Amino acid sequence: MSKLPDVTENFDEFISNGTVVVDFWATWCGPCKMLAPIMDEVSEKMPDVKFGKVDVDQAMELARRFKIVSIPNVCIFKNGELVDRIIGLCEETELTETISKYI
Questions:
Q1: Which of 9, 19, 40, 95 is most solvent-facing, going by the fewest CB within 10 Å?
Q2: Does residue 29 carry a catalytic annotation?
Q3: What is residue 2's predicted lDDT score, i.e. its pLDDT?
Q4: What confidence score (pLDDT) does residue 32 get?
Q5: Structural domains in the chain, sorted by start
Q6: Which tens digit of pLDDT belongs to each residue from 50-86?
Q7: Options 7, 21, 29, 99, the catalytic residue
Q8: Catalytic: 32?
Q9: Chain centroid to CA 54: how far?
């Protein structure tokens, strides 16, 4: 289970400032469970970036708003704007390199 906080309730405030990474996932999703420790690892190595997660089954409006049709879906925000995303399971290096472009 991931150590990242669920940010559904304060989503807009959470993404409003700086570089923010949000993992859209679901409890029944195997690749999402495989991605969780990778997200935890990357979050520990990137202290200047905020990390959170949203369960798409519990937050369907947010999932629709960001056109989440496949999970895991890691969305990268810069000052409240969606700037990039990684769809599907990814390795730590791909995740780190993608996030680093927006720091």
A1: 9
A2: yes
A3: 72
A4: 97
A5: 11-100 (3.40.30.10)
A6: 999 999 999 999 999 999 999 999 999 999 999 999 9
A7: 29
A8: yes
A9: 8
